[in-house]
Specification:
Strand content of chain B: under 5%
Oligomer: heterodimer
Strand order of the largest sheet of chain A: 6-7-8-3-9-10
Number of strands of chain A: 22
CATH architecture of chain B: Orthogonal Bundle
CATH architecture of one domain in chain A: 3-Layer(aba) Sandwich
Structural class of chain A: alpha/beta
Number of helices of chain A: 18
Structural class of chain B: mainly alpha
Strand content of chain A: 15-25%
CATH superfamily of one domain in chain A: P-loop containing nucleotide triphosphate hydrolases
Distance between the termini of chain B: 64 Å
CATH topology of chain B: ABC transporter involved in vitamin B12 uptake, BtuC
Radius of gyration of chain B: 20 Å
Largest interface: A-B, 30 and 23 residues
Number of strands of chain B: 2
Largest sheet of chain A: 6 strands, mixed
Shape of chain A: globular
Strand order of the largest sheet of chain B: 1-2
Helix content of chain B: over 70%
Distance between the termini of chain A: 21 Å
CATH topology of one domain in chain A: Rossmann fold
Shape of chain B: globular
Number of domains of chain B: 1
């Protein structure tokens, strides 16, 4: 896990360095919202400048203007002190601005070298060997190892991002934007990226790092700017950052991000054991479950979950967690073993039958398998009940019942949406998650699987989601919480199962030494 | 067995070349377009455009070479509409493709009716290039190595395209435009320019294929004469998974089915022509069943690229 303790700032930022890019009163409007409201900001060489803000605070809009994807409606952009528009991505590259986006911008079907040569004169033959050499050199300079001839699609996201940064250096970038670059990385890869950006800044590069993780901002940033609702609401200068310790700095930033209200006080709390009734019959029981589908086959998975209990499933992403959730929800076939819910075997049941039995699955693929982006939010709330009364009668839609349901859920779950008819794809990640929660938790849920429920959400929505998870257990349902955030699992779960390579390596009670034991199980020290 | 006489075999192999060349050109064109992410359903229309304009110019100027240039122009003309609507304006590629095919069918039939309905002019045979020595091989020689220059050109396109795809930045840019256009854009290259180039080149190749049908194959222009060749080209491109050589093999296979009709008649076998004419389409379905399951298409195929859109 990422530790909040700040490593030494390797960069020695000097406020003397002139800004490479200056924003003066930059404003960008979209229909209905002001995404950026007269932003003044300077980006200097030799600094890691962190842009912090919740979802929808306007970070992405700001980045798209820096990288030439969008143009401001108002205000001035100065490059090296001279007013000059960044009119296209090619323009940005000419200035020396390179962007590494959250979603990799490498073509998966090409090798790293070929990706690095994209954009050169079309009639030339790609100089694969020469480029590979240059790539290796650039990678070594920043302490990254990569195989230039590897096919991009075979690499992990962390490796792809390192390759993208290397490519930016090869193009002579002096201004590097990392847009939510750590959001999809494993903790180790994220920490490595953090060190990398500090090294780059030390070499004199301007680094802009966009994140909504406070600990990363404080750990890696030389300067922090906080955005809220499209406005810059403050920040910390390098001097302030250096004079404060990590905890004080975090508190300051939290105050800026949320006004006076503080964030959740972290992992100090322990789950309330009183809701668990281990004397009762387990709600869910897995008996030697096997599944060969997918890249990670599940093998011999056995556990029980009692009513009111939260079972955390920890592990590095991609070790079979998704397959397990899909197998339980009925979306993927199992090859052997049994699943018992409230005393009945459900492993032969269809998805709908399992749902009727009280099986609920809150997916992390919110816009993929979770919702239909173009459907109105009100219909997405009923996606798994289409055709059922009272919302449909004799096959006909009952608009008033559907609207009434949507209005109630909007109220109960605090869903922020322009209207209940808005296509769900237009909502922010946090609100899409609320719609999913509203849908899956309504009715009589017996077992709820949460898969990476707070992934990509901002602090306020993380807190709201975690409260929902607790309430779900308190209402007597058995909860399976799949997460790659160990802190989250420790804060919420009563027991924690560690998953690795499609197997459960062990299950530990969430007592004092739990973090240590989980670490041992994850690293394979203890069998 | 008297079926496999020399006459039959020469007719069959020559027929493979004659019916395979339009398929080859259609398949290569479609492959180019699909590589860049544009599913070009309109190639049947582009082919007809090429067939008509090629024939008209060859007839009007009495020059086969100019006729082929006209065929290329006809294909590009129809393709430019595709580029305008689907690449520049981002409209639905399938709808526009179907509209272009239907539109070209109607337009060429009408023009033909107005100009040639009473004359029915026929073009003279196109002169062939005899390749020394190779043409002296029995059976295969006269069928394959004593052919119209366009045949050699079409086959030469295969290694040329292999080279372009594998050895030039253009090839990388085409693939990026089809697999991850945003990556190409952020690398500073204009996705719309690359895709427009791909669609127009596709039109040029397909139009040449159409001109081959009217100028070399039939010697006349007949309404609807492309007869689904463009659609088979789409299938070929899909099965070939980005490899020009596979398009060549596929075109030979389907060409053989098409030419079997003529060859069987030459050999005096009495099978209803309707049955024989079904052969290529039956072959399409069988090949699709066998090989179509794992066909891998570019990730962004069929999706218009709009910068900055999620």
């Amino acid at each position: 896990m990422l530790d909040a303790s700040t490593p030494e700032h390797s960069a020695q930022p000097s406020t003397e360095a002139p800004p490479i890019v200056t924003f003066e009163g930059v404003t960008k409007r979209y229909p209905g919202i002001i995404a950026n409201d007269s932003i003044d900001m300077e980006f200097r060489a030799g600094e890691v400048h962190v842009l912090l803000g919740e979802n929808g605070a306007g970070k992405s809009t700001l980045v798209s203007m820096l990288s030439g994807l969008q143009q401001p409606d108002d205000g001035r952009i100065l490059i090296d002190g001279v007013e000059k528009p960044i009119s296209s991505p090619a323009d940005a590259l000419d200035i020396g601005i390179s962007t590494v986006f959250q979603h990799s911008m490498l073509v998966p079907s090409l090798t790293l070298v070929e990706n690095a040569t994209l954009g050169r004169k079309w009639w030339q033959a790609p100089d694969r060997a020469g480029t590979a050499g240059a790539m290796k050199t650039a990678a070594e300079r920043i302490g990254v190892t990569l195989d230039p001839m590897a096919l991009t699609g075979d690499l992990s996201l962390g490796e792809r991002q390192q390759a993208e940064i290397t490519r930016a250096l090869m193009r002579g970038a002096r201004f590097l934007i990392l847009d939510e670059a750590t959001a999809m990385l494993t903790p180790n890869d994220a920490a490595r990226l953090g060190e990398l950006m500090q090294r780059l800044a030390a070499e004199g590069m301007a680094v802009v790092f966009i994140t909504h993780k406070l600990n990363e901002a404080v750990a890696y940033g030389d300067r922090i700017s906080v955005l809220r609702l499209g406005k810059k609401v403050g920040g910390l200068t390098p001097e302030e950052l250096k004079s404060l310790d990590a905890q004080e700095a975090t508190n300051q930033v939290v105050r800026l991000m949320f006004g006076t209200q503080g964030a959740q006080s972290g992992d100090a709390e322990r789950p309330d054991m009183s809701t668990v009734d281990r004397d009762a019959k387990p709600t869910l029981e897995l008996l030697a479950l096997y599944a060969d589908s997918g890249r990670v086959p599940l093998s011999n998975i056995e556990f029980k979950v009692w009513p009111g209990e939260i079972l955390g499933i920890a592990g590095i992403d991609g070790n079979g967690q998704k397959q397990l959730a899909a197998a339980l929800a009925g979306q993927a076939p199992i090859s052997d073993g049994r699943v018992v819910l409230d005393g009945d075997y459900i492993d032969r049941m269809s998805i709908g039958q399992r749902r009727a039995k009280g099986m609920r699955y809150v997916t992390d693929d919110r816009l993929g398998e979770g919702t239909v982006g173009t459907f109105p939010m009100s219909i997405n709330l009923l996606l798994k009940e289409i055709g059922e009364a009272p919302f449909w009668r004799s096959g006909l839609e009952q608009p008033e019942a559907i609207r009434e349901n949507a209005r109630r859920q909007v109220r109960d779950y605090d869903i922020r949406t322009p209207s209940i008819e808005t296509p769900i794809g237009k909502l922010s990640g946090g609100n899409i998650q609320k719609v999913l929660l509203a849908r899956e938790l309504s009715g009589s849920a017996r077992v709820v699987i949460f898969e990476k429920p707070t992934y990509g959400l901002d602090l306020a929505n993380i807190a709201a989601t975690q409260t929902r998870i607790r309430e779900t257990a308190q209402s007597g349902a058995a909860v399976i919480l799949i997460s790659t955030e160990l802190d989250e699992i420790l804060a919420l779960s009563h027991r924690i199962a560690v998953m690795d390579q499609g197997e459960i390596k062990g299950i530990v009670e969430n007592t004092d030494g739990a973090r240590h034991k989980i670490g041992e199980l994850m690293s394979g020290v203890k069998k | 067995m008297t079926l496999f006489t020399d006459t039959f075999l020469i007719a069959l192999i020559a027929g493979i070349a004659a019916s395979g060349v339009p398929l080859l050109l259609a398949g290569l064109g479609e492959q180019l377009s699909e590589k860049a992410g544009v599913l070009n359903v309109g190639i049947e229309g582009m082919m007809l455009g090429g067939a008509y304009l090629g024939f008209y110019i060859a007839w009007a100027t009495e020059s086969t070479a100019l006729g082929f240039v006209g065929g290329i122009g006809g294909g590009i003309l129809v393709a430019s509409l595709m580029a305008l609507f689907c690449v520049r304006m981002g409209l639905n590629q399938i709808v526009i493709g179907i509209a272009l095919t239907l539109g070209a069918e109607g337009a060429t039939a009408l023009l033909h009716h107005v100009q040639f309905s009473r004359l029915y002019p026929r073009l003279p045979d196109v002169s062939t290039w005899r390749i020394p020595f190779l043409a002296d091989i029995p059976i295969v020689g006269p069928a394959l190595f004593d052919r119209e220059p366009v045949v050699y050109l079409a086959i030469a396109l295969v290694p040329i395209l292999v080279y372009v795809y594998r050895r030039t930045h253009l090839g990388l840019a085409l693939q990026a435009a089809g697999d991850k256009p945003a990556a190409l854009d952020s690398a500073g290259q204009n996705v719309l320019v690359i895709r427009t180039f791909a669609v127009l080149s596709c039109g040029a190749l397909v139009g040449l294929g159409g001109a081959f049908m009217s100028i070399v194959g039939a010697g006349v222009f007949v309404p609807f004469m492309t007869h689904g060749n463009g659609f088979i080209g789409i299938v070929l491109a899909m099965l070939a998974r980005g490899r020009p050589l596979w398009v060549l093999l596929g075109a030979a296979l389907f060409g053989a089915c098409l030419s079997a009709a003529t060859a069987l008649q030459v050999a005096g076998v009495d099978i209803p022509t309707d049955v024989v004419q079904m052969l290529p389409f039956v072959a399409v379905m069988i090949v699709l069943l066998l090989a179509g399951r794992n066909a891998k298409l570019p990730a962004a195929l069929g999706a218009a690229y709009v910068r900055g859109e999620r």
